[in-house]
Amino acid sequence: MIEVKGHTGQVAFDGEYVTIMRKGLNARLSVGKGEKRMHISQISGVQWKPAGLLVNGFIQFTVPGGNERRSAFGSQTKDAAHDENSVVFHKKQMPQFEKLRTAVEAAIAAHHKASAAPAIVSSESVADELAKLGALREQGLLSPEEFEAQKARLLAD
How many domains does the chain fold into? Predict the structure, then answer.
């Protein structure tokens, strides 16, 4: 579990869910008090602006269908402070947020890899099995009823 505290909120990541929590005066002045929890499958990317000596940085979690807009030069951090999927941080807090960013990006990549691989393998093997069953039916080794029963079994899995 990674928990980091920023200027405009806290972020917790348990390996599966990213939770953004806001409380206190800064929450009232920015997005509002509350908690937002997103599963790793809902996050499509992580936007990052490092903090400098005189400017704050931010981390922003991009979600499909989110209402994002390009900030004008010099106002990225100010706009991020009012975005519900962003947390602004100071220079001293940046190393902890970098660890969070790395962990979330690794989890996103692992989730996409795990969810994509089985679908490709299973759809190819089902197609191969159907082709073999069709060939057996054409050779007269399977009756039309047996073919339909085996096809239904394959498609149900």
Answer: 2
Among 86-95, 137-146, 147-156, which range has the highest average pLDDT?
Answer: 86-95
> What is the residue range of 135's domain?
118-156
User: In the chain, what is the straight-line distance between the N-terminal and C-terminal CA atoms, in Å?
Assistant: 36
Instruction: Say if CB 76 and CB 28 are below 8 A apart.
Output: no
Strands 57-62 and 17-22: unpaired
Vertex 78 angle, CA 72 and 83, to 5°: 100
Alpha-carbon span 102 to 115, nearest angstrom: 20
Beta strand segments in 33-80, E: 34-39, 45-49, 57-62
pTM of the entire structure?
A: 0.62
Q: What are the helix (H) ranges across 1-143?
A: 25-29, 76-80, 94-138
